[in-house]
Design a protein that fits this description.
Order of helices and strands: EEHHEEHHHHHHHHHEEHHH
Number of helices: 14
Oligomer: single chain
Helix content: 55-70%
Number of strands: 6
Structural class: mainly alpha
Length: 454
């Protein structure tokens, strides 16, 4: 039964659909870089870093869930987007800074997912080539064609009117994320059982032996950025919460969904990171399923990459729908009488095409695809996205809104430790961002356009 909320909106979301949205947003391309990240950090710092980021993400998501309504978590007006919540609780310049961080991150994630999906599609072609020609064959292929294929698919799916229509797609995408993560785990276990002659250590890749000490430091910082990206979903948490039906307090349902999502993904992350490290040691590939540590059985590697592509098709929509809504709401408010903006034309009696939506969303997908073709570097791009978004969106704004909502006194014990937590994470984010920018510069200097990026 569809319930009409007190703002005349139809919301049908449940604990299951919200959890599916979270898992779709969290278990993304980031999981595939965790073996490499663990290899840089080692057996101690790797799992500990994953647990620390998981706890911080869950803690901040609970604070953010309470900020969906204003002035209190249970009563007051709804804030359908993250930026609306910041505007209600903090206002002023902080609202503008939040908008820049949130929507900039969503554009970056759209680019990152395009890169990752194309790498997985190219890996399928290369896997089949290696199976036929041998593991020493070049089997090079350009990722650009696959980016175009992914972009065309997203152009079609982007015509989905709004976030509320994505529940089915998110559930399928969440199932796919479990599928390819499980395949990666199974392949890692098989490799460990078959040939466990790799170098691992408590402190990770050894500076001064396999790399310079400065390189070790930069890689460690970039690994932290990759882990931060792997847990990034605060950017769409409020938008997910706005889909929940009104029968139960939204903040309580969202906290349960966050606990389910973060717990589930953390278990997968630790398993993927540690087993991938155990399987490959310090030579762990940047992308566990496309770095060709695994060649056989080729059909299973292909299946895993197909699951990745299907998952990213849905995850792309989870992150870009809020951008679509922002631009379209602004245009409709600016030009409310324009039939070009508001008129829908039925096709087949079921689907309605709006020409403005068609042109604008198509243009967005094309631009993100072109940017992905320009910077097709998996690990460095993920690290930069994670570093730039983690502190402001996962820590700073949720903490500031909570302090404002709970009226916590300045320089009280709670105020001090919350701000210390925020500052520590800010420093870590800045260092990880610097390492990732360095990685992108090095990738650009070594880039060979005709070869696939692995």
């Amino acid at each position: 039964m569809i319930e009409i909320d007190d703002d005349d909106r139809k919301r049908t979301g449940t604990l299951v659909t919200a959890s599916a949205h979270i898992i779709t947003a969290v278990i993304g391309s980031g999981v595939l870089s965790l073996a490499w990240a663990t290899a840089q950090l080692g057996w101690i710092a790797g799992p500990v870093s994953l647990l620390v980021f998981a706890v911080i993400t869950w803690f901040s998501s609970c604070l953010l869930a309470d900020c969906y309504r204003f002035p209190g978590p249970l009563v007051g007006s709804r804030n359908p987007t993250y930026i609306n919540a910041v505007k209600a609780h903090l206002g002023g310049m902080k609202q503008k800074l939040c908008g820049m961080a949130q929507y900039g991150n969503m554009v970056g994630v759209s680019i990152g997912y395009t890169i990752t999906a194309s790498i997985s599609m190219a890996a399928i072609a290369r896997s089949n080539c290696f199976h036929k020609e041998g593991h020493n064959s070049g089997c090079h292929t350009s990722n650009n064609m696959f980016m175009i294929i992914f972009g065309i698919t997203e152009i079609i799916l982007s015509q989905t009117p709004n976030f509320h229509e994505l529940s089915g797609l998110s559930i399928v995408a969440a199932i796919m994320s479990f599928a390819y993560s499980s395949i990666a785990l199974g392949l890692s276990i098989a490799k460990i059982a078959g040939e466990n002659h790799v170098r691992t250590s408590l402190t990770g890749a050894t500076g001064g032996v396999n790399m310079a000490s400065t390189e070790k430091i930069w890689n460690t910082l970039q690994a932290l950025g990759d882990i931060a990206f792997a847990f990034a979903y605060s950017v769409v948490l409020i938008e997910i919460q706005d889909t929940l039906k009104p029968s139960s307090p939204e903040n309580q349902v969202m906290k349960k969904s966050s606990l389910v999502g973060v717990t589930t993904t953390t278990i997968f992350y630790i398993l993927c990171g540690t087993l991938g490290y155990a399987a490959f040691g310090e030579q762990a590939p940047g992308n566990l399923l496309t770095g060709f540590g695994f060649y056989e059985p080729f059909w299973l590697v292909d299946l895993a990459n197909i699951c990745i592509v299907i998952h990213l098709v849905g995850a792309y929509q989870v992150f870009c729908q809020p951008i679509f809504k922002l631009v379209e709401d602004w245009c409709n408010k600016k030009w409310p009488e324009s039939r070009f903006l508001t008129k829908g034309y039925p096709i087949g009696g079921v689907f309605h095409v709006n020409f403005f939506r068609l042109l604008w969303r198509t243009g967005y997908v094309m631009v993100t695809s072109l940017l992905a073709m320009t910077f097709p570097f998996f690990n460095s791009v993920l690290g930069l996205l994670g570093a730039l978004s983690f502190w402001p969106l996962t820590l700073y704004f949720p903490l500031e809104m909570y302090i404002s909502q709970a009226k916590i006194a300045r320089f009280s014990f709670t105020w001090i430790w919350l701000n210390i937590l925020s500052m520590v994470c800010l420093v870590a984010s800045l260092l990880a961002a610097a390492a990732s920018i360095r990685g992108i510069i090095m990738d650009l200097s070594n880039f060979k356009p005709l070869h696939s990026v692995s």
